[in-house]
UniProtKB/TrEMBL annotation:
Gene3D superfamilies: 2.60.200.20
Keyword terms of this UniProt record: Membrane, Transmembrane, Transmembrane helix
Entry-linked InterPro entries: FHA_dom, SMAD_FHA_dom_sf
Upper classification of the organism: Bacteria, Bacillati, Bacillota, Clostridia, Lachnospirales
Name listed for the protein in its UniProt record: FHA domain-containing protein
Transmembrane segments: 12-38, 50-69
Ranges for domain FHA: 121-166
Annotated organism of origin: Coprococcus intestinihominis
Keyword Ribosomal protein: no
Source organism superkingdom: Bacteria
Amino acid sequence: MKDTYSRGYKAAALVLLLIELAVLCLPVFGGSTAFLLLKGFWQHGNQLQHIAAPLLLLICPAISLFLLLKIQTSRTADTTDKFVEDLLPHNENTPADCGTLFFLSGPLTNQSFPLPAYTNVFLGRSSQLCQIVVNTADISRKHICLCYHAAQHTFVITDYSVNGTYNTEGERLIANTSIEVPDGSVFYIGNKQTSFRLSA
């Protein structure tokens, strides 16, 4: 969009400069050019019969200069914006912005899955509802939701299951209730045959 505006400004400035050249060099004022009219006015006090001549000579360059300055200002702003954008961190999740879920036991033992920062990742039996699929009968279709909080290096876990999610002390998480847990937390799901560790 900005490039379109710049091209429009350039075209307008070029048209005005062409008009300026025509007024200066072509006999468009009763057989006289604007330059000759103004020369006679300043040197001999001749009556200025065509007021359009000085107006065009003043207005056209002024507008052309304004348009060219507008283009330059737009380019400077674009360059500044690009410089600032390069300095700012990007929103895309890099490996440093991801937590990790590592299976300690169960059908996915020794497999790990990335947990992008501030993104809900569902684990369960259904491939349509979950990004991490554990296809065993004791796992609910949508068993748990995990979200990695990169700034605090913590995880938020929410249990939606029938058979439950348990911590290492055997305590079952309260269903449909989100809790924040630290890096290195271990959980068991379903009949406790499947376990995983959360790592920042």
